[in-house]
Specification:
alpha+beta; 761 residues; PcRGLX_1st; five-stranded antiparallel beta sheet; PcRGLX/YetA-like N-terminal RIFT barrel domain-containing protein; signal
Length: 761
């Protein structure tokens, strides 16, 4: 274990002992039957932390000498023979060997047959300073043998170290039902320059194609034909794996191209074993193609001359896309690459989810049994809500959705299938606009006057004299899609899938959603190419900022959209800082007032849970390295920590549904949290906080907060991520607020829905 990892672990154990079991949930509900009773005020008592039960403490960690590996052996032979056959199972741990950066576990998903020459490719994020682009990596397996790793660096940190890379290897052996641990060791060996070209695959007989039969006319695109033509993009290049991207419109036998339907192939070729992963995507995405519409066709994918997918009568929605994966040259490798959760969290690429949570087996089993039927097929939506504007506590609301956090904390194959599958099906919404000029998701920096929700007359670009509005649908009846999307309830669908796989499809999904959020508003409202998000609902501001930050953070450095996202991110942080760090336009509560923030109680109140979403998104933005968020976060966390621990606050009411922050629409924001409490509900000024009378008035039990305190998607749960960041940025009062929150006695069970179970670092 590295010293940094040891320190992180020690702090986490200490946090557990002091704070006990944590709670939090997600997704504020606005339906009438969920409206909460009014709240109350008084000074918040500092409660002692309850004792930690044995079940709440971290499991004991197995220790081992640096030069040895702890293993579990089945009744299948000696240790040495098991290692040589790839049958070692080391499923112990998030503990990293002292000489390794991190590790991954290679889990055989075949319980009957051992495998040899198993190809793997996965995405890996690195902590700042851990790996330089000039370094290479070696994989050390359980038996001490070393495996050459191909590292395709995609993004670097500000200090020049590697942020994200795609790693490929061919594992010599993997026993049936067993797990091998591969430590990633830094070396200075020179990377091997690839001499592999598509000819290597083509000369071995590789073929793949996709067909769409529309009204009796057959349209086709062939991956092997496109590779022979030579126009391709290279995604991976090295001695282990080479991946080439080719695309073209579907065409008839006479060469007539379909104006809307395009096939995209990503061919990942492992030359040493003569196998290929065939990634097929069909798009109906062109932004400025006339008469966009849905198309109904019979779809078929053929690999190696064999039909591998057919779907008659598929309705392909406008500005949507679908994807399927296949293998050529042999069966799909049956291996699950399990990342080191502790290290992923240490990099700050994902929030600091509470790693003491054991994800419930029932939820993992449900993920597997429920992953069937139309929702898993092209134009399905997986585990996401088909109607995004739906209000209420939901599994997909949060910095990461529930299914992604169950996967992150368990690294379970079933949860991973759902997470990647739902990321793939993110293409099913009509939110995908590709620019023919760049062949990339469209950008407001290229088209500052385009909009989805504004008027066409608002889209005239004075520099060009042209309107930038998208073409109208061929007919309103031809552009229906049962999947309704928005920004206010939008999950993070593709970020984690791209982070852990390095698949280009997921990268573009993330970019499509980030650009959709930016191009939706009236161009004047967003500041044209500035891409400002402050004019929307507070929750939309939160999720727009999160998705934009994820896209800016993880987009490869050689991608033209990287600079676009970074500039728009800076524009937004500058706007918020210039507005809320300026005494003339700021307020002492730390409450957001932009956009539709003050729409409750005749425009006198905000919704604390939405404000908490924004605070959490801002804290996560700082985690991702956007340092302009630092001073802003210190101001912003005041609202969440003062509601818990400020003078005159009453912590049990900190999660009321709406919170009065001014006395009239022309009045300034209150200067103290005590006044805000009193004006929100007189009970807070007339009764002691947590007294029997107050609890009776609010219908609460001792130790219970307002707003479904025992629910993993209630308002206290919504508060938890914001409060975790407040404990880090809010000084002594931030830490006091967290202690009060952690000491409450009515908490949710996060084992099935941990998306809000974020704790301070």
């Amino acid at each position: 274990m590295t010293s940094l990892t040891r320190n992180t672990f020690a702090l986490r154990v200490l946090s557990t002992l002091v704070c006990a079991t944590l709670a939090a949930c997600g997704g504020g509900n606005e339906s009438d039957d969920m409206t909460l009773a009014a709240s109350s005020s008084a000074v918040a008592p500092v409660l002692p932390a309850p004792p930690v039960s044995t079940s709440q403490q971290p499991a004991p960690v197995q220790t081992e000498p640096a030069s040895t590996v702890t293993t579990q052996q089945g009744a299948m032979g000696s240790s040495s023979s098991l290692v040589s056959r790839g049958l070692i199972s080391r499923e112990t741990t998030n503990i990293i060997a002292s000489d390794a950066i991190t590790d991954v576990r290679l889990e055989s998903t075949n319980s009957l047959t051992s495998q040899t020459n198993v190809p793997i490719t996965f995405g890996q994020v690195f902590a700042v300073g851990a790996l330089l682009p000039s370094n290479s990596l070696t994989g050390r397996l359980d038996d001490g043998s070393q495996l050459p790793l191909q590292v395709d660096v995609k993004a670097i940190h500000a200090d020049g170290s590697v942020r994200h890379a795609v790693i490929s290897a061919v594992v010599p052996s993997l026993g049936n039902g067993y797990v091998r641990t591969m430590s990633l060791l830094k070396s200075n060996a020179a990377a091997t320059v690839s001499s592999v070209t598509p000819a290597n695959a083509l000369n071995n007989g590789f073929t793949a194609s996709v067909q769409a039969s529309i009204n009796g006319i057959q349209y086709t695109a062939s991956a092997d034909s496109l590779l022979r033509q030579g126009a391709r993009a290279t995604w991976l290049s090295g001695a282990v794996a080479n991946e080439w991207h080719v695309s073209a419109p579907l065409v008839t036998s006479s060469g007539v191209a379909h104006p809307h339907l395009t096939a995209r192939f990503a061919i990942r070729w492992y030359d040493s074993i003569k196998k290929a992963r065939v990634d097929v995507t069909v798009e109906n995405n062109w932004a400025y193609e006339a008469a966009p519409q849905n198309f109904i066709y019979d779809a078929k994918v053929t690999v190696g001359g064999v039909p591998v997918f057919t779907k008659p009568g598929m309705t392909h929605y406008h500005h949507a896309r679908w994807r399927k994966l296949f293998w050529w040259g042999g069966a799909e490798p049956e291996v699950n690459v399990k990342h080191n959760t502790a290290y992923l969290i240490q990099t700050k690429a994902v929030p600091n989810y509470d790693q003491t949570i054991a994800v419930a087996e029932t939820s993992l089993a449900k993920a597997k049994t429920g992953w069937v039927g139309a929702k898993t097929e092209p134009m399905g939506i997986g585990e996401a809500a088909s109607y995004m504007p739906q209000t209420g506590g939901r599994d997909d609301i949060g910095i990461l959705p529930g299914w992604a956090t169950r996967y992150l904390l368990s690294m379970d194959k079933r949860a991973k299938e759902v997470t990647l599958g739902t990321g793939t099906l993110a293409g099913s919404w009509s939110s995908h606009f590709r620019d023919k000029k760049t062949d990339r998701p469209i950008s407001i920096i290229d088209y500052p006057y385009m909009t989805l929700l504004g008027n066409a007359t608002d889209t005239r670009n004075p520099a060009t004299g042209q309107r930038e509005a998208f073409p109208a649908c061929a007919a309103s009846t031809l552009c229906t899609n049962p999947n309704k999307h928005d920004s206010s309830h939008q999950p993070s669908l593709a970020y984690l899938p791209y982070l852990v796989t390095g698949d280009y499809y997921y990268l573009e999904e993330l970019q499509f959603w980030a650009t959709y959020n930016l191009l939706s508003p009236n161009p004047g409202y967003r500041g044209y190419a500035k891409g400002l998000v402050y004019r929307t609902q507070v929750r939309a501001q939160a999720w727009n900022l999160r998705t934009l930050a994820q896209a800016a953070y993880i987009t490869p450095d050689n991608d033209r959209l990287k600079g676009h996202f970074n500039q728009i991110m800076a524009n937004n942080l500058d706007w918020y800082s210039n507005t809320f760090l300026n005494p003339a336009t700021s307020n002492q509560l730390g409450v957001l007032t932009s956009g539709s923030a003050l729409v409750y109680s005749s425009q006198l109140a905000t919704s604390p849970w939405q404000d908490d979403f924004f605070t959490a998104a801002l804290g996560y933005t700082l985690d991702l390295g956007f340092t302009k968020a630092d001073a802003l976060l210190k101001w912003k966390t005041k609202f969440v920590v003062e509601r818990m621990a400020g003078n005159g606050a009453c912590w049990i009411g900190a999660t009321m549904y709406s919170f009065n922050v001014r006395s009239s629409t022309s009045s300034p924001i209150y200067s103290t949290i005590a006044e805000a409490y009193r004006q929100s509900d007189p009970v807070y000024g007339s009764m002691a906080c947590g007294s029997a009378g107050m609890l009776t008035a609010l219908g609460l039990k001792p130790g219970e907060m307002l707003g479904y305190a025992n629910s993993a998607t209630g308002y206290p749960a919504n508060m938890q991520p914001a409060l975790a960041y407040g404990a880090q940025s809010g000084g002594a009062i931030g830490q006091k607020a967290w202690q009060i929150f952690a000491a409450r006695t009515v908490k949710p069970d996060y084992s099935k829905a941990p998306q809000f179970a974020i704790i301070p670092r």
